[in-house]
């Protein structure tokens, strides 16, 4: 089959539930855990059954490691409570940073060490360990002031129809939330569970890795991890999740 015919066929298969979704109308935004199977939902809260905790433990060790450790400036990692709920955030120099970007900046500026790199094991581990300190806390990102232009950029990206399937994020994550697609139950597309351990990946992964999968799903261009577009999108997703609990480290199928 040619790419064009494959896309046409995929669209045809998707048509019934798209129409049904439009008839159902947009629903409220719910925590992602509400869309998980009961088994996954329970395991997400149980360190003994959640492989993501291996990364948390590694991150806690990294936090204390070396002469100029994270701990040497920040004290015990418990002091990071609530921080992840405020990210992405605009830094002193006007750049929008997510938690990964914030940690990389400390690494470069305060530790004088080379960047870990996006999706590297130590960066995922530190991000998971810091994010865990906000587990259960309500998302509360700043959306006004310097953050406002980024929020708008993220909103535009979210609402734009994309890829060969010509679908916006909201056509799946608002109009069709709760419905099944290829064995998944479509959630409201929030970033609250990331970094998350996906059984399908067999590892812990970042939100941007998941966003690349959704871009691929609609046959749109996959942007690089940490791309400005994905960062702005991450802020918009967090604004949609305002008041909902941080679930990181999440557990996904
Ligand atoms: C030499 C001191 C120093 C070291 C070492 C350091 N940081 Fe920082 N960190 C800071 C300062 C200062 C800030 C406040 C923002 C700024 O001025 O860069 C900060 C901010 C942060 C924030 C954001 C806090 C908030 O409330 O928004 C996080 C998260 C963070 N650091 C994580 C880390 C991690 C993880 C490491 C180790 C890899 C680390 N830091 C190492 C000094 C340090
Ligand atoms: C064709 C439907 C579809 C489109 C369009 C789509 N996604 Fe998804 N997305 C999914 C499915 C299916 C999953 C996996 C189940 C779930 O968690 O919702 C998913 C997962 C996600 C997740 C992870 C949720 C979690 O907690 O694991 C996020 C975040 C997300 N999508 C955001 C987006 C964004 C942003 C866009 C637009 C750039 C988008 N998606 C476009 C179908 C879609």
From TrEMBL:
The UniProt record lists the keyword Phosphoprotein: no
InterPro entries given in the database record: Cyt_c-like_dom (IPR009056), Cyt_c-like_dom_sf (IPR036909), SoxA (IPR025710)
UniProt-annotated binding residues for substrate: 210
Keyword Ribonucleoprotein among UniProt keywords: no
Residues annotated as the enzyme's active site: 214 (cysteine persulfide intermediate)
Highest taxon above the source species: Bacteria
Main location: periplasm
Positions contributing to heme c 1 binding: 70, 73-74, 106
Signal peptide interval: none
Reaction(s) this enzyme catalyzes, per UniProt: S-sulfanyl-L-cysteinyl-[SoxY protein] + thiosulfate + 2 Fe(III)-[cytochrome c] = S-(2-sulfodisulfanyl)-L-cysteinyl-[SoxY protein] + 2 Fe(II)-[cytochrome c] + 2 H(+); L-cysteinyl-[SoxY protein] + thiosulfate + 2 Fe(III)-[cytochrome c] = S-sulfosulfanyl-L-cysteinyl-[SoxY protein] + 2 Fe(II)-[cytochrome c] + 2 H(+)
Gene Ontology molecular-function annotations: electron transfer activity; heme binding; metal ion binding; oxidoreductase activity, acting on a sulfur group of donors, cytochrome as acceptor; transferase activity
Cofactor notes: Binds 2 heme groups per subunit.
Residues at which heme c 2 binds: 169, 172-173, 214
Cellular location(s): Periplasm
One Gene Ontology term from the biological process aspect of the record: sulfur oxidation
Subunit structure: Heterodimer of SoxA and SoxX.
Protein name listed in UniProt: SoxAX cytochrome complex subunit A
Source organism (scientific name): Muricoccus nepalensis
């Amino acid at each position: 089959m040619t790419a064009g015919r494959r896309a046409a066929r995929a669209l045809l298969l998707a048509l019934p539930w798209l129409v049904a979704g439009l008839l159902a109308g947009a629903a409220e935004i719910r925590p992602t855990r509400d869309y998980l199977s009961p088994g996954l939902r329970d395991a997400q809260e149980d360190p003994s059954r959640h492989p993501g905790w291996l990364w948390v433990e590694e991150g806690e060790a990294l936090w204390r490691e070396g002469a100029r450790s994270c701990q040497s400036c920040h004290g015990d990692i418990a002091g990071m409570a609530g921080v992840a709920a405020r990210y992405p955030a605009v830094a002193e120099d006007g750049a929008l940073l997510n938690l990964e970007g914030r940690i990389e900046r400390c690494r470069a500026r305060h530790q004088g060490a080379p960047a870990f790199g996006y999706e590297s094991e130590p960066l995922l581990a530190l991000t998971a360990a810091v994010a865990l300190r906000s587990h259960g806390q309500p998302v509360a990102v700043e959306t006004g002031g310097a953050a406002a232009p980024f929020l708008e950029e993220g909103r535009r990206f979210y609402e734009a129809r994309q890829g060969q399937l010509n679908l916006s994020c909201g056509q799946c994550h608002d109009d069709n939330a709760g419905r099944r697609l290829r064995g998944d139950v479509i959630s409201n597309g929030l970033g609250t569970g990331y970094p998350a351990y996906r059984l399908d990946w067999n590892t812990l992964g970042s939100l941007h890795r998941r966003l690349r999968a959704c871009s691929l799903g609609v046959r749109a261009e996959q942007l690089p991890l940490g791309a400005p577009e994905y960062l702005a999108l991450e802020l918009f997703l967090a604004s949609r999740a305002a008041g909902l609990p941080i679930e990181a480290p999440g557990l996904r199928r």
